Amino acid sequence: MGRNAAYTSRMTSVACALLIGLVILRDASAHAEEQSQGQEEQESKEEQQEATDASKLEREFNDPLTTLPQFFFQDAYTPANYGTDAQTNRLIARAIIPRIPRFSLFPFVQLIRPTFSLVTVPEGRGTATRTEFGDMQLFDFAVLPGSSKETGFLWGAGPVFSFPTATDKTAGQGSWQAGPGVAAIYKNIPGILLGGLVQNPISFAYTSPDRKPTSTLLIQPIVVAHIGWGFYLKSADATWAVNWHRHSATTIPLSLGIGYVRVRDGLPPINLFVTGEWMAYRQFAPVAPQTTIRFGMTVAIPGWRWWD
Questions:
Q1: 218, 237 in Cβ contact below 8 A?
Q2: β-bridge mates for residue 161, sequence order
Q3: Which of 32, 115, 125, 214 is 20 to 30 A from 231 via CA?
């Protein structure tokens, strides 16, 4: 009886151990499954958040009234021109510097945007070219009353300037220019940015007597559409130019391109794009781009802001 009792006791202990082991394994499996599901949900949330961040950044990178500080670089290569066999190029560097008021003395958000360029221009109707620094442009806009993040409509206005910094007369207009500018943006359609930038610099002083007066209406339509996974389509790089003087040049190009926004942990967001441009209409423009390919990159600096 004692032997049977001991045997029964051992068997009971083994059964209890097996039962406890099964319970532990079941709990561990359930815990692992919960962890896996939690990790998948967290990754899904992170992917959704990244997609949302990328969609917002797509609009910020293409918005002329953005308060996101950034550096913009673009190379516009023109393999075919009207009026010359030369292939031309324009390298552009630009900064967007927001001034956000801390006090109400000047309650408007101010956006300062200087633009510098290095241009390769034709020397005649042949293939010869030369590379020089071009003129510098600057606008200083204030975001005006009526703008609202709730309605998605923002508009701003301010002066625009052009400075004759070109190192050769073929690389610039050779005049000091100033004039009005206005921009308007609508963001309340999910995944879509609509708007435009209008400027009209007018010459008032010249670097030499042979320079002609200029007054040019510059219109830049902006359409950006989110695709997904950080990619977007845009038509936002072409600028229509209408010169007000008699028998002066008018050019209307059309552009279409694709861009990609990369959100990086611990690093500034980056925007890459490539755009094709075609001259749809020209008048009184003996030399003008026919087709242009633009390669660009924008780097955001979210923590860099200029306060009052």
A1: no
A2: 138, 178
A3: 115
Q: How confident is the model at residue 21 (pLDDT cuts 50, 70, 90)?
A: low
Does the pTM of the predicted model rise above 0.85? no
Structure tokens belonging to residue 6: 């001991």
List, for residues 202-244, the tens digit of each pLDDT value.
Answer: 999 999 999 999 999 999 999 999 998 889 999 999 999 999 9
Distance CA 160, CA 180 (A): 6
3-state secondary structure of 92: strand
Number of domains in the chain: 1
Q: Which helix (H) or strand (E) holds 261?
A: strand 250-262
Residue 301 inside a domain? The answer is yes
Question: Mapping DSSP to helix (H, G, I), strand (E, B) and coil, where does residue 58 land?
Answer: helix
Q: pLDDT digits over 60-96, tens only?
A: 899 999 988 999 999 999 999 999 999 999 999 999 9
**How many Cβ atoms are within 10 Å of 301's Cβ, its own excluded?**
15
Q: Is 127 exposed, middle or buried (0-12, 13-18, 19+ CB in 10 A)?
A: exposed
Per the domain annotation, does 23 fall within a domain?
no
Query: In CATH, what number is assigned to the domain containing residue 97?
Result: 2.40.160.40
Q: Is residue 265 in some structural domain?
A: yes
- The residue segments making up the domain with residue 240 are 55-307
78 occurs within a structural domain: yes
